[in-house]
Amino acid sequence: MSLLEQLTSILAQPPADGWQSHDFAALDQLHIGGLAATKELLRWLPAGATNGLDMGGGLGGCARLLATHYACQMTVSDLNSDYIAAGQLLNQHLQPQPACHYVVANSLKLPFAKHSFDFVLSQHAMMAIADKQQVLAEAARVVSAHGHLLLHEVYLTPNSKPEEVLYPTPWADKLGHSHLQTWAQFLADCATSGWQLSQCENETQQSLLWINKARAARATPASPLNARLALGSAAGKMSANIMANLQAGRLEVRRALLVKSA
Ligand SMILES: C[S@@+](CC[C@H](N)C(=O)[O-])C[C@H]1O[C@@H](n2cnc3c(N)ncnc32)[C@H](O)[C@@H]1O
What we know:
This protein is about 35% helix and about 20% strand. The chain has helices at about 5-10, 25-30, 35-40, 60-70, 80-90, 130-140, 185-190, 205-215, 225-230, 235-245, and strands spanning about 50-55, 75-80, 100-105, 115-125, 145-155, 195-200, 250-260. The chain has a 7-stranded mixed sheet with strand order 3-2-1-4-5-7-6, sandwiched between helices. Helix 6 links the parallel strand 4 (about 115-125) and strand 5. Helix 6 packs across helix 7 (about 185-190). S-adenosylmethionine (SAM) binds next to loops.
């Protein structure tokens, strides 16, 4: 059964009080740290930022949270049309429906005019993209002057070698499809693509705690709406590899806030 067929069947049996956005969190927060990491990232949402793009937004969990609890108008873009259709379906099962618009698009060539958004956010959506300067330049093009970029991404640690990282992970089935950088390399690309760093936190320790807990709870999932629906049968192997890569110090997780350069 396809993702959409499975979702349609599960969503047809709502809880007594109807579907709430947090019921979807194990499925639509497709990144290390889940919903808690998203809430942590959104503490940096700049005052007055109400119109945002969730770039590589997957099933749109972060965007729905922003629309529901932060009064934002959100657009979710993603290359994967199944994820975009699933995000739309989840949206339709919430009352009131969050103010989210869903678009199939490549982050390397966004179908939005210059200055369309106050902010762009990206969670675990840059590691599969080789041309970081192009994706960062596209994000800079579509935000307004002094607009912001909120990031929650995975990086190579300074001394690790790309070939030591274990795959599959949620962003790549094998080394050849993965485009990890160190934080220092990424910052250099930011500087040449129109972004200045405002804040950054290394989230690796919290990420490890979260993934340990998530893996312990995995044997008895609280809901059929979980990451396996989106990631398929390799989901367990992916989370084991993420944990091993973080534990061995090959990868690190960071969140950051950047401001568009003048
Ligand atoms: C690990 S998922 C994260 C999804 C979402 N940001 C989240 O945290 O729940 C990575 C997402 O990046 C998307 N992606 C990868 N390369 C992309 C590209 N070039 N353009 C748009 N989306 C892309 C994938 O389709 C996938 O949905």
